[in-house]
Design goal:
single chain; about 240 residues; alpha/beta; Rossmann fold; six-stranded parallel beta sheet; two-stranded antiparallel sheet; globular; binds zinc ion
Length: about 240
């Protein structure tokens, strides 16, 4: 009986994979099929032990982490490389009005967080904020959607507005490395309402992509300056620029 009901529902509301377009059973409650999930580009092999940048020739730390004097996060980790299917999915989440993809993608992040034993060392989950102007245009902050689902799955406290973005920045990918750092200077601030709530807490900072890590580092700086005990960063994908 249930089978027939599911079949009828799937006829009325056909659900297809956001990547390959294959039909997905309604009862699976997914937007990406298993076949596509299994072929996402995993981040493995040699990576920087601090920021997870893929390293061509071994060594523990990338040149960026060696040169940067102050890195405020303990570690940055990502399950995937920002390429191929993950790039397509993130672009769909951000620019094609598909906020529902956040649930599917957050599940992949949650599995990774558990596998890496990160969940045991966090009290609070906070997203990298976007400027209200962008939020207004898009209607949502993709990092916040991901963080919210992860917090629900892991049963952790979620503060969507603990960090705020103080100025509107140029898209980072249009800038050179030095300009990126300047572009982000004093870009983030703590929301005064959360000062006491983050004090002495272990924080998991969530974003969709890590490119140079300067965004993650600036956010971590603000959290640490406001007495957060430790910041661990997890992004869905790691760009290897
Ligand atoms: Zn598919
Ligand atoms: Zn590094």
């Amino acid at each position: 009986m249930l089978k027939i009901l599911n079949f009828i529902i799937s006829l009325i509301f056909p659900r297809t994979c956001s990547l390959c377009g294959e039909n997905i059973s309604f009862k699976d409650n997914k937007n990406i099929c298993d076949k596509c999930i299994n072929t996402l580009p995993k981040l493995d092999g040699l990576v920087c032990h601090k920021c997870s940048l893929p390293l061509a020739d071994g060594g523990a730390t990338c040149s960026d982490c060696k040169e940067t004097k102050n890195i405020y996060f303990k570690v940055l980790k990502s399950p995937f490389v920002y390429t191929d299917k993950i790039r397509v999915l993130i672009k769909k989440l951000k620019y094609s009005q598909r906020p529902f993809l956040a649930k599917d993608l957050s599940k992949l992040m949650t599995d990774f967080i558990i596998k890496e034993n990160i969940d045991k060392n966090i009290d609070i989950i906070v997203p990298v904020p976007i400027h209200w102007n962008k939020g207004l245009m898009r209607g949502y902050n993709q990092a916040s959607l991901l963080a919210d689902w992860i917090a629900k799955e892991l049963n952790k406290t979620f503060y969507s507005n603990a960090l705020i973005r103080t100025k509107y920045t140029k898209p980072q990918f249009k800038l050179k490395k030095q300009q990126r750092a300047e572009n982000l200077e004093n870009m983030f601030a703590i929301n005064k309402k959360y000062v006491d709530k983050i004090k002495h807490k272990n924080i998991l900072l969530i974003d969709d992509i890590a490119t140079t890590c300067s965004t993650a580092n600036q956010c971590s700086k603000v959290l640490k300056e406001n007495k957060a005990k430790q910041v661990i960063v997890v992004t869905l994908a790691r760009a290897s620029y």
